[in-house]
C-alpha cells in the first residue's frame, strides 16, 4: 500500500504546482499561444510526471482513494498562490485546508492494497465511444469561452482517463503495453482534460473552475470503479472511507467557493518581475508575455 500512497501524494504535489504554472501562462498570453509559453510547458512537464505517478498509484489503490488524494493538490495550489500571486489565505481557508488534509489522512488509512484488474471489453468500447463525443464538445465550447461548462467537460475527460488507467495493468512489457487500446484511450482523455482545464483557467476564476474539475474527477470515476471494477474499502472501514471522502470534497468546495477570494484571482498581480494582464486582454484572449 505504501508505494501507492507515496505515488499518489507525489502526483498531488505535481498537479498542484503545475496548476499555478499553467494559470500564470494562461493569463500572460491568450488563445493557442499559451501552449508555447515556457511556464505552460513546464506545467505540462509536471503534469506528465504527476500522471505517471498516478498510474503507479492506481495499480495498488482504488479509484476513489487515488482521485481523492489527488484532490489534495488544491492545498498545494493555494499555498503556492501566496508566494506567486498577491493573495492571502484567510482563517477560513486555513481551516478548510486542515479539514481536507484530515479527510485525506483517514481516507489513506481506510484503503488496503487492491491490485488493478484488466478492464472488461464493454468498458473499453464505452470509453472509446465517449472520447470523440467529449472531444467534439470541447471544440464547440472552446470558441464560446464558457469556463464553467468547459471545466465540467474537462472533469469528465479526466474521469475517463482515471477509469481507463485503473483498468490498465502494467505488469507486461513495453510492447504489450503499447498494444493495449486502453492506453491510447487514457492518453486521449488526458489531452481533452488538459486542453479543457487550460481553457477554463484562461477565462474563468481558478478556484471555482478547479473545484468543479476536482469534484467531478473524484466522484464520477470513484462510483464507476465501485460499480464496474469492484473497488472497495478495507473490511470494517467502509463508513470511515465514505465519511472521509465527504469531508475531503466538502472542504475542497469550501476552500474554493465558500471563502472570500477563494482560489487564484482572475487577473493576478504577479510577484518577482511578472506582469499583470489588462482586463480587455483577458476578455479577448490578447496580451503579451510579461517577462
TrEMBL record:
Chain intervals for the UniProt region annotation (Disordered): 267-291
Keywords attached to this entry: Membrane, Transmembrane, Transmembrane helix
Keyword Disulfide bond: no
Composition skew (Basic and acidic residues), residue ranges: 274-291
Residue ranges of the TM segments: 39-58, 65-86, 92-111, 123-142, 181-200, 206-227, 239-257
UniProt entry tagged with the keyword Transmembrane helix: yes
Record-given protein name: DMT family transporter
Organism in which the protein naturally occurs: Glutamicibacter soli
Amino acid at each position: 500500500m505504501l508505494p501507492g500512497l507515496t505515488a499518489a501524494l507525489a502526483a498531488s504535489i505535481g498537479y498542484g504546482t503545475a496548476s499555478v504554472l499553467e494559470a500564470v501562462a494562461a493569463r500572460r498570453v491568450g488563445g493557442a499561444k499559451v501552449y508555447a509559453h515556457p511556464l505552460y510547458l513546464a506545467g505540462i512537464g509536471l503534469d506528465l510526471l504527476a500522471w505517471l505517478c498516478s498510474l503507479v498509484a492506481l495499480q495498488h489503490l482504488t479509484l476513489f482513494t487515488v482521485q481523492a488524494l489527488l484532490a489534495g493538490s488544491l492545498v498545494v495550489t493555494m499555498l503556492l498562490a501566496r508566494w506567486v500571486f498577491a493573495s492571502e489565505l484567510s482563517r477560513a481557508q486555513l481551516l478548510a485546508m486542515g479539514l481536507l488534509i484530515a479527510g485525506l489522512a483517514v481516507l489513506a488509512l481506510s484503503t488496503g492494497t487492491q491490485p488493478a484488474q484488466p478492464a472488461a471489453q464493454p468498458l473499453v468500447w464505452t470509453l472509446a465511444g465517449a472520447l470523440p463525443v467529449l472531444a467534439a464538445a470541447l471544440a464547440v465550447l472552446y470558441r464560446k469561452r464558457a469556463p464553467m461548462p468547459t471545466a465540467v467537460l474537462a472533469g469528465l475527460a479526466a474521469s475517463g482517463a482515471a477509469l481507463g488507467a485503473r483498468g490498465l495493468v502494467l505488469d507486461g512489457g513495453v510492447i504489450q503495453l503499447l498494444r493495449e487500446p486502453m492506453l491510447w484511450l487514457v492518453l486521449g482523455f488526458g489531452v481533452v482534460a488538459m486542453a479543457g482545464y487550460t481553457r477554463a483557467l484562461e477565462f474563468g476564476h481558478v478556484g471555482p473552475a478547479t473545484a468543479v474539475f476536482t469534484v467531478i474527477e473524484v466522484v464520477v470515476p470513484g462510483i464507476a470503479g465501485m460499480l464496474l471494477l469492484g473497488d472497495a474499502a478495507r473490511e470494517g472501514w467502509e463508513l470511515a472511507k465514505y465519511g472521509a471522502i465527504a469531508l475531503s470534497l466538502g472542504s475542497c468546495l469550501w476552500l474554493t467557493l465558500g471563502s472570500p477570494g477563494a482560489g487564484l484571482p482572475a487577473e493576478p498581480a504577479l510577484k518577482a518581475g511578472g506582469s499583470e494582464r489588462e482586463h480587455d486582454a483577458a476578455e479577448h484572449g490578447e496580451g503579451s508575455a510579461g517577462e
